[in-house]
Amino acid sequence: MDRRSFLKTSAIGGSAAAATALAAPAYAQGKRTLTMVTTWGRGLAGVFDAAQRAADSITAITDGSLTVEVKAAGELVGAFEVFDAVTAGQADMYHAADYYFVGQHPGYAYFTSVPFGMTAQELVNWYYFNGGAEMHDELGELFGLKSFLCGNTGAQAGGWFRKEINGPEDFNGLKFRMPGLGGEALGKLGASVQNLPGSEVYQALASGAIDGTEWIGPWADEKAGFQEITKFYYTAGFHEPGAGLSLAVNREVFESLTPAQQKAIEIASAETHQWNLAQFLSNNGAALQRLQSAGVKVLSFNDAVWDAMGAAAKETLESKRDGDIYDKIYDSYLTSMKASSDWIKASEGAYRTQRDRILG
Q1: pLDDT in tens, 210-256
Q2: Sign of CA dihedral 252, 7, 148, 59
Q3: Is 3.40.190.170 the CATH classification of the domain at 3-155+242-281?
Q4: Are 301 and 159 in contact (CB under 8 A)?
Q5: By C-alpha distance, which of 232, 223, 247 is closest to 94?
Q6: Taking a C-beta distance cutoff of 8 angstroms, is the pair 232, 75 a contact?
Q7: Where are the beta strands (DSSP E) in 102-216?
Q8: pLDDT tens, 255-280?
Q9: Nearest to residue 91, comparing CAs of 44, 159, 21?
Q10: What is the pTM of this model?
Q11: Domain-by-domain residue ranges, the chain?
C-alpha cells in the first residue's frame, strides 16, 4: 500500500486533514508528546518491553521535554500498519522488527535479521563501525524516516512443530509462521508461509490455522504459551541468529527536535538494544529447563535440513539484488559479517571450546 492509499483508507482519519491533526506535536508548558506505534501486542515478553524501555528512557533523558506515549498493536493502527502510519505522519515513531517491511524494501530485512546472517554481536559491529547505521539512515531517507537499532532478541529458536522434521521434504505443504526473508526461503522448501503479528500467533496455532511457528526463544515462547499446544521444539533456527529491533522516527518530526532531544533518542535506542539482548539471554536458559520439565521435546534439525535451508537462503538473498541500495547493504553486510566472524571464531570460539572441555 502506498502512502496516499494509506491516508485514504486508514481507520484513523480517512483524510489528509485528519493525518495532519494527528501529526501535529502536542505542546504543554514547552513540553512535547510523541506517539510511538508498535508491532507488538501490549505486554508481549521482551519485544513490548523494549518499546516501553526506549520510550521511558527518552522521557527521562530529556527531563520530560519529550514524553513518548506507547501504543500497542491495534490501539492506534494495526501491527503491520505502523510503517505507513509514521511515513504518512499519522504517528511520530514506531518500534518494530524492520523485516516486517520487506514489502516496502527488501533491504529492511538486514536491520532485523536474514537467514544465515549475523549474530547479535556481529550485527552491532556492522551497525556502529562498518556502515550499517549509515545504510539504515540512507534507506530511511527514501521513506521519510530516521531509524535506530533499538533492541535484540539474540539467536532465535527454530520453532514449534506438530511433528518432527526428519528431512527437507517435511516442510512441503506445512503451514508455518515465519516473517521476513527467512520465511521466503522456507517457502522455497514447499512450506505455506504465513506472516502473522505476534499477538495472533497463539490463536492461529491453537486453531490449526498454522501447523507450526517460530517466535523468539524459550522465555518469550513460554510466556506466549506455545508449549500448551505442541511439544516439538527446535532450539536452533537458520532464520534469525541475532534479530535486531528498530525505532524509526518520522524524519520531519526528528528534524524539528533540538539536537539534545535527537541525541536522547539515539542514546535511548542504543541502551535499549543492550538491555533487551541481556533480558532475553538471561531468561532463556531457565525457561528452556522449565519447558523440558513440562514435557517439551527439544530437538535439532539434521544436516540435510540445514543444507536445504542454506541453499534456499542463498537463493533468496541473491534474488533481491537490484543494482542499487539493496546491493550496497547486502555486500557491506556480508563483508562485515566475515570479518567479525573470523576473529570471534579464532578468539572467543576457541576459548569457549576449551572452557567447555575443561569445565564441562
Answers
A1: 999 999 999 999 999 999 999 999 999 999 999 999 999 999 999 99
A2: positive
A3: yes
A4: no
A5: 247
A6: no
A7: 145-152, 159-161, 175-177, 192-194, 212-213
A8: 999 999 999 999 999 999 999 999 99
A9: 21
A10: 0.90
A11: 3-155+242-281
